[in-house]
Amino acid sequence: MEERDLASLRGLADRVEEALKSFNFPPAAGESGGFVVEIDAGDDEAVRYSYFETTVTLAADGFDAETFRVPVLDFMYCLLLSAQSIRGGGKGRVSFTESDMLIELVPQAPELKILRSWDPVPGNCGTDEFVVAVTRFTDAGLGFIADRYPAFRNNPTYQKLIDFRSGLVSASRRDRSPRWVRH
Q1: Does residue 77 lie within any of the structural domains?
Q2: What's the Cα-to-Cα distance from 19 to each of 12, 16, 86, 160, rounded to whole Å?
Q3: Strands 92-95 and 119-126
């Protein structure tokens, strides 16, 4: 791996950590203003789309960074499915449930062309960089939520995301499950 690629991945890790600081979830039980969030057996769809939101930044070579507010579990789901499709030689798509915006990820080895429905200017990033970013974002996000809301580990959405992430990692064989992943 070239030094430029390593520097890019280090920068990516910093951006993932910075993104976690912007998670905006309700206070957990026991915190000031907190309440018990019953998400262990909650409706899969409601948890995926309604419980947790965060601000994410889309950054790639070729266009300026953009910031969006998204339901984080749905965003993870779309990113993981896109990464799996790309690993299998297909295209990736990230749709935003709350709007008509669409991001398409088109493989052009060894990079991905990033097309946004709202802007004709394409961007690009390394395919491996994208897969690493998706894995790290998922690990960090699920870890943050599960640490704050331990009952979330019993929710079907959590298990689906863990399974998608495990499948992605198995395909690449480059990563290990973090300490918080419980199968």
Answers
A1: yes
A2: 10, 5, 24, 22
A3: unpaired
DSSP 78-129: HHHHHHHHHHTT--EEEE-TTSS-EEEEEEETTEEEEEETTEEEEEEEEHHH
Give the tokens for residue 168.
Answer: 């992605």
pLDDT tens-digit series, residues 143-167: 988 888 888 888 888 999 999 998 8
Q: Which of 180, 104, 154, 135 is nearest to 16 (CA)?
A: 135
Tokens standing for residue 10: 């280090």
Q: Which domain holds residue 59?
A: 3-172
Is the whole model's pTM more than 0.85, yes or no? no
Domain count, the chain: 1
